[in-house]
Amino acid sequence: MGMEHTLKQGGFTLPGEAGYEELTLQMARKWGADVIRDSDGTQLSDEIIHAGYDIYSTICLIRSDNAWAKQNMDKLQQNFLMSEPVYAKGDTVTIEPLKGYFTQQFAVNWKDEPKEFWQVFDRTAGTEVPAGNWDYDEQAGTVTVRGCIPYHKYTVNFLAIRLWEEISMYNHITNDWGDKEHLMAVEPRHPETQAQILKWLEQWCKDHPMTNVVRFTSMFYNFTWIWTDHEKRRDDFTDWGSYDFTVNPIALREFEKAKGYKMTSEDFINRDLHNATHNAPSRKYRDWMDFVNQFVVEFGKKCVDIVHRYGKKAYVFYDDSWVGVEPYGERFKEFGFDGLIKCVFNGFEARLCAGVKDVQVHELRLHPYLFPTGLGGAPTFMEGGNPTLDAKRYWGNVRRAILRAPIDRIGLGGYLSLTQKFPDFQDYIAQVADEFRLLKSFHQGGKPYCLPVKAAVLTSWGKLRSWSCSGHYHEHPELDLINLIEALSGLPIDVEFVSLDEVREKGVPAGVDVLLNAGRLNTAWSGGEAWKDAKLLEEINRFVANGGGFIGVNEPAAQDFSTQFIQVADVLGVDIDLGTRICHGRYQYEVEKSHYITADTVAADSILGKDGVYLLNDQVQVLLEKEGAPALTANQFGRGRGVYMAGFRYSLESARLLMRAICWAAGKEDAADTFVCDNLYTECAYYPDTKNLVIINNAEEPQDCAVKTPSGDVVKAQLPAFEIKIVSLA
Amino acid sequence: MGMEHTLKQGGFTLPGEAGYEELTLQMARKWGADVIRDSDGTQLSDEIIHAGYDIYSTICLIRSDNAWAKQNMDKLQQNFLMSEPVYAKGDTVTIEPLKGYFTQQFAVNWKDEPKEFWQVFDRTAGTEVPAGNWDYDEQAGTVTVRGCIPYHKYTVNFLAIRLWEEISMYNHITNDWGDKEHLMAVEPRHPETQAQILKWLEQWCKDHPMTNVVRFTSMFYNFTWIWTDHEKRRDDFTDWGSYDFTVNPIALREFEKAKGYKMTSEDFINRDLHNATHNAPSRKYRDWMDFVNQFVVEFGKKCVDIVHRYGKKAYVFYDDSWVGVEPYGERFKEFGFDGLIKCVFNGFEARLCAGVKDVQVHELRLHPYLFPTGLGGAPTFMEGGNPTLDAKRYWGNVRRAILRAPIDRIGLGGYLSLTQKFPDFQDYIAQVADEFRLLKSFHQGGKPYCLPVKAAVLTSWGKLRSWSCSGHYHEHPELDLINLIEALSGLPIDVEFVSLDEVREKGVPAGVDVLLNAGRLNTAWSGGEAWKDAKLLEEINRFVANGGGFIGVNEPAAQDFSTQFIQVADVLGVDIDLGTRICHGRYQYEVEKSHYITADTVAADSILGKDGVYLLNDQVQVLLEKEGAPALTANQFGRGRGVYMAGFRYSLESARLLMRAICWAAGKEDAADTFVCDNLYTECAYYPDTKNLVIINNAEEPQDCAVKTPSGDVVKAQLPAFEIKIVSLA
């Protein structure tokens, strides 16, 4: 890019706003921007475009040419839906498949061979109704099932055509856009659609000679977002990572050719659970994901190539419509993207962005967005809002992750004009931009020092869902794993993500000291039925017995199988009674007052209790009790160690406790002796190549802290709220 | 019996105490006793025996002749145990079967063909190790398993001989009896044991000519009580109703002959769950119970016949060692018992006793027992104790049940001399005895009026476990069903108990208005895997759709099967997310301020919340919210109704709420218009034949109340704490 980068300038993407040309250029100077972008719904004026900044424009290929989409309604995207259940009163049941769904979003696809793709189920008996026992009637809009058993309930899985692209739908309805055109998502599996998309993109590149960076938002398939027509339950199902919207007759038929077997509607409906990223995936679903990923990469690469041909860079947005892109997949490098952009509220999202290989630029879109309201409709850039405090908190979340992993760019989104009434916000962003550029410069000197322990997060997904539980922290703060990875995102500990399949097949990866597994029964985070495989348990038991560590949270490795519920119960020294062991005696215990793990804090507000947790032997140390049951325990298993936490919520306290638990489980109690702040409200990172020690205050109050260095020296620091301090140890 | 019964005398069994002859006779007069009994560890003196009262003596056949037991150690009772798991390090594992168990209670039975009866399991893989891969060594006291997989864990199921009868063991250890002889339980399956028992009993009858009533305590098999040698976990497994101690080689071989298939050790060990009464029983286990019951009745009848031959009556105690007796079983009448005695803390236990058919006398042993300490070691008849208040509370629990169902006798147990320092207790018992005799006289005139609704408690056990969840209330107050039946025990509602099998096979019994199902997943109270049977659901859905009611509590009808967790979710209008539906939207709702069910009280302290409960449609009425989820809901299903409670704890408030919920679910909102107190701390019963209205104050404070009669009259009453008032409507 054209402009010279200094510590006061560069690495910053500013949202320009037509009509506010002076403000745009003023803020660009104040914040050290090198790039000006448009936003969803904004356009840049010629004055801004020609002001000497790099220009960055957003496009969304699947909803970009609505006129074409309208002329090709047979080429819209599709997905499977399950009808509402209908109880049989006699031996025939009539079902309206679409009843209860949002009819502006969905229409029934009556055209593509219902008998090939649809299925009818008796959901009382849990059995499929033979295809010969049901018929569909497009005119009536119904399916009739014969040979029913009275008082059983029946559902139809059917293909639905999507009439309204979900981001367009959401913005339209939220902002009350009235008559404004509904955008539609076209299905790129059709050759005609592909031709149209490539043609449109080529023309767009020609029409935007000043654009240096094209941001794809994102590729072809949105996250799943199924709406109902129930006022009191608008959302039927929403998941940032599931592949429901990649389904259509072409894909289903090609899958069968490619993989040698057929995906059924029920493979997607999955007893109404769909294939939520949160749940342990089936082998068939993983095959489908692979099949879709291959297509998205192949066709996506053609789009990226066009952008490159016009001398522009291609970035991809890692939020909307990224399904099939899989930045942590093996094929991602084949796209040829130059950059990846992630909008971030939290530290783990910064690590999610930073951890993607094979792109040169990792860019964060910071919150708050320049909108009148923020999360849950709370005021931001309007009366009653405090965007500066919001920004400090979000930056506080994100900064501790940026200390650990390099990020190349940051930026904002939204309406710049809204900042005019908040000059302190404008000032604070200037400070954030400077902090960011400084940290970036430190990373350029090399990796920061990590404690000599390596942790691996063990899930069904492994690397493919690194640094993520599908979605933002505030959407599912009840997930233990999202809290754990938020804590990990800023800890001075090497972290990798490993799948149950990998461990079963190849053992625990070399170099890993501690495994973490956290979640509820049958989720992808806990692991589900994979834990019935003794080979997996052999590997884990061997790893711990020989000195490894295992930290289990909530219902880790859970499955109602054999003599245990937690399948690694002996490693942890605890198991969970779901109500069928009330006649069994439980070990009495006393809470250990003093332990390495809780030496700094027991994080009592952040470690939850769980009913039914019980000890397996009298050597297990109970470090915290809640609700009358052990909530935090430490156990020896062979030469290794197990730590159990009944529940984990992120806080500065629990992040510290987690760090110590990892060191203890690894059997490396002295690992945290150096380059760790003695005050848990502060954290530090040491960059050995440039000998810079960065200390941050994560708290909203001033803090004092001390950091021991390997030479035995102690660096002391006093930091105002949210402050950063750089100490040179040269 | 000899003495004349008046309202001031009769129906009362007093524990006599040698050395306190004067006190014994004084209290016998004061309390209107007609019978004097001995107690465990007490003997009656000749003076008492010849005082003109009926005499009642306790015997326990299986531990009555310890000298014989010592000479016949090969005929002691046995049971299966599972060894502690041992992890394989190489391909061989050596296991000490008995390690960790209480060796004063158990010895390994090495003699009876271990290869026939024992099993070895790989509990990591959940598979049995072939018998050819293990050997036992009596000398070494070990089992060696070959062909092991390292890092798998192995256990041995083995036959253990019981060296110490558990009641003897418990009393011995609790009371520090030192050298006192350990009593042993002999196994009556051996013909020699049977001969010895019959001989002993015959001799005993001859030796006790003054005894009018022989109380069997109880028959042959104690409830399961497995102890460990771990100081911090004395109890391994304790259940009042499970059949572990009925196992031995003779029985196992005879079972195979009788039923045509073999019970394995694992059928009893059951993944270390044993066959707790609380858990849904397998078909095989039910067969075993039937097989044992047949034997206990057959041999028990021979014992009863001897007692009858000597002109005495035979009563059976419905607490210790009643396994195999099954007072609610089809064969119970064949014993020929004259009476049944139940010790009671609570109302449901009074109903448990009252509900047994085919005995003439139903007798309650009231608490507190005349011991220095009571529940959990709290002081009773000693300094710091308040036995009168204890007695009022227990009588308060029990009396409301006695209003509903006739009891023939009451009595006390323990050391009468302990009452000397508590004259107010002596006075209060006189009052209780009078109240009891009055209520008994009312029942003699006919059944009390019930509201025109009939409820059926639906469990795996049905009638066989009527009015019981295996054990006392205070042992498992966390069980929803024990709380529900305690509430039901005093409500003016007809109650029956029905099994899932019966409903599946024959439908909901005629006359039943409302089904209740309450408990956690896989328990016998919720029902377990039976809910995967669509035939059962057909019957229940039909019943409700045609106007029936269904009240589900906690995890009713639960099974992770098909599209629902609560298999009757549509009936209730709610289901439960265990963590795999976090991406699904939930219906928003407002709590109904006014509803028939909550018209008297919402019982907010007694209805618990449960995480994950969600509504299935927007017509469900939420009557109480807890922990952010619906805790009490009301739903229409066809012409019937479903009520869901996330958890139920007994209180006077929740008993009232339950009564109204039953009326509402039955669609009979006017059922509670008459003969129901307007003040929920009071209850009443109307005896139509004698036109007596009995009003009781269940509270520890004075209460006013009013009762509407069918004629429209209103009876008003003021009652001091715990008082009873009789109003004649003649």
UniProtKB/TrEMBL annotation, chains A, B:
Residues 10-450 form the Lacto-N-biose phosphorylase-like N-terminal TIM barrel domain. One of its GO terms (molecular function) is 1,3-beta-galactosyl-N-acetylhexosamine phosphorylase activity. Pfam families: Lact_bio_phlase (PF09508), LBP_C (PF17386), LBP_M (PF17385). Keywords: Glycosyltransferase, Transferase. Its EC number is 2.4.1.211. Residues 675-726 form the Lacto-N-biose phosphorylase C-terminal domain. The keyword Transmembrane does not apply. Residues 454-670 form the Lacto-N-biose phosphorylase central domain. SUPFAM superfamilies: Class I glutamine amidotransferase-like (SSF52317). InterPro entries: Class_I_gatase-like, Glyco_hydro_b, Ig-like_fold, Lact_bio_phlase-like_N, Lacto-N-biose_phosphorylase, LBP_C, LBP_M. The keyword Nucleotide-binding does not apply. This is 1,3-beta-galactosyl-N-acetylhexosamine phosphorylase. It comes from Solibaculum intestinale.
